[in-house]
Specification:
The N and C termini lie far apart (about 65 Å). It is globular, with a radius of gyration of 25 Å. It is about 40% helix and about 15% strand. It is α/β, with parallel strands linked by helices. The chain has a five-stranded parallel beta sheet, with helices on both faces. Helix 5 (about 150-160) runs parallel beside helix 7 (about 180-190). It has two domains: about 10-220, P-loop containing nucleotide triphosphate hydrolases (Rossmann fold); about 270-425, 3-Layer(aba) Sandwich (NADH Oxidase). It binds flavin mononucleotide. The site of flavin mononucleotide has 11 residues, from strand 14.
Length: about 450
């Protein structure tokens, strides 16, 4: 297909008029549920695919990206049926963070693609048209933040891709991204004859920038109860479907829903700026009497290796002279945590600077103060894990450090007690959230 060829994509339901189903996205570990229907999309347009999270917009986006398998739908491009692998060849994910090309250096990858595809554009043409900053051209895509989507769009353009799709995002996200030039990049794509698909929670901002909104939300016409039960059965939490209205456009709810304990990490480094975003989120947590009892020790590289050697020493010692004798059955889990800590690029040790030595006898007042400070530290850790999620990073909250409390304490050499470690890094693969109890089992309303 040449860049200026126009084309149309038809999605046809092959079984009955409409089919419903859950879909998993292997790479993204996101579930979604779409009520299939026939659709037609034209090239040269930006489409807003509008639905609540989990109500089909991401499914449709990834379906047209050739990333979903289905027997119930047929997809044709210019009336010619295409297989999912063929569709995948035409398509490009604007969010590169989970794609192999996240590791590509912007200038090199675009220049190579220009050459390979015989484009008449030069790199600087593309750089200007997609608003790519020359100062960042030598970075890898994953090292870019605001510019990442524009760089991905530019690379997909140079690769001659025709369908540009994206994961679920909120209207706010596009609002902010368009302040820094995303719309210009997307318009470049549609001007070249491509289709752009933006799945989003609402049309609030999108309706002003896209050519057409396709509304998929079936909140109002499906059996909520049934859907909720299916989610409960499969994922262990279904209540949030009922709360979808509250979650509309809420980044916090998305981070809460998206966060997972990540136990496998890529070797990729995380920038200091990103870690600081996470630390600031921790520092912004509420704390009892605003005591802010935390201190964060960020360990990477050699320091991290030293700290973990100390932890290993502690776990070894635990076999013969246990600090936590009644927790011996969990010692194996602590070794696993140590492995994860070795793999992750960054560890943030969180110390309660006011914490009393464990086992120390305390007055009642001291105990209450200790409990309040522990809650404050917990709030900081949770804020950090949500911020990590929002930054596209995985994290793991680890308390197995308590097995090596003494050894890690020596290494840390700061006032107070180590309360937890949080590892942060780019997740390798996908992780399902642990199941959750049902609301009726943990909530009691009294009026
Ligand atoms: C206080 C606390 C301590 C934890 N300690 C560990 C740990 O030492 N090792 C580990 O692998 N996971 C640890 N976790 C992660 C939990 O196992 C995890 O949050 C839980 O299984 C639910 O899974 P999810 O976080 O993916 O929803 C800890 C979590 C919390 C809140």
């Amino acid at each position: 297909m040449k860049a200026d060829d126009s084309f149309s994509i038809k999605v046809a339901v092959t079984q009955g008029n409409m089919a419903g189903g859950l879909a998993y996205f292997g790479k993204d570990c996101v579930c979604d549920c779409l009520r299939y229907r026939n659709l037609r999309l034209e090239s040269g347009k930006i489409y807003g695919l509008i639905s609540e999270y989990g109500q089909g917009c991401m499914y449709l986006s990834y379906l047209l990206g050739g990333r979903v398998t289905t027997d119930e739908l047929s997809i044709s491009v210019d009336e010619k049926e295409v297989s999912m692998p063929d569709l995948a060849k035409l398509s490009w994910n604007l969010e590169s963070s989970k794609e192999r090309y996240r590791n590509a250096v912007v200038i090199k990858a675009i220049q190579k693609a220009i050459k390979r595809n015989g484009l008449s554009d030069s790199f600087s043409d593309i750089q200007n048209r997609f608003f790519l900053k020359p100062s960042r051209q030598d970075r890898k895509l994953f090292q870019l933040s605001g510019e990442r989507w524009r760089a991905s769009a530019a690379l997909g353009y140079a690769e001659g891709k025709r369908i540009f799709y994206a994961p679920y995002k909120t209207s706010d996200f596009y609002y902010e991204m368009c302040q820094s030039g995303l719309l210009k990049a997307l318009k470049e794509l549609t001007a070249s004859g491509a289709v752009v698909l933006l799945p989003c929670g609402s049309d609030y901002f999108l309706k002003h920038i896209v050519d057409e909104c396709i509304y998929l939300d079936h909140m109002h016409d499906c059996y909520m109860e049934e859907l909720q039960n299916r989610y409960q059965e499969i994922f262990g939490h279904g209540e949030w479907i009922r709360d979808a209205e509250t979650q509309k456009n809420s980044r916090v709810m998305q981070a809460i829903q998206g966060r997972r304990s990540v136990r496998r990490y890529l070797a990729e480094e995380v920038s200091r700026e990103t870690i600081e975003v996470i630390l600031r989120a921790g520092m912004q947590a509420p704390s009892a009497k605003n005591r802010q009892p935390w201190r964060f020790i960020v360990a990477t590289g050699r320091a991290k290796a030293e700290a973990l050697d100390m932890m290993e020493k502690g776990l070894e010692r635990e076999k013969t002279a246990p600090f936590l004798p009644e927790s011996a059955e969990h010692l194996q889990g602590a070794w696993q945590s140590l492995e994860i800590m070795r793999q992750a690029p960054v560890i943030i040790f969180v110390v309660n600077t006011l914490g009393a030595e464990i086992g120390k006898s305390m007055t009642v007042d001291e105990q209450v103060s200790e409990i309040c400070n522990a809650q404050s530290i917990g709030a900081a850790l949770e804020n950090m894990s949500l911020a990590a999620e929002e930054q596209g990073l995985g994290s793991l909250w680890i308390c197995n450090t308590f097995f090596a409390q003494k050894e890690l304490g020596i290494w840390l050499n700061v006032e107070g007690e180590l309360y937890a470690a949080m590892v942060v890094g780019y997740a390798e693969g996908n992780f399902l959230a642990g199941t959750r109890k049902r609301m009726q089992d943990v909530v009691e309303w009294r009026e």
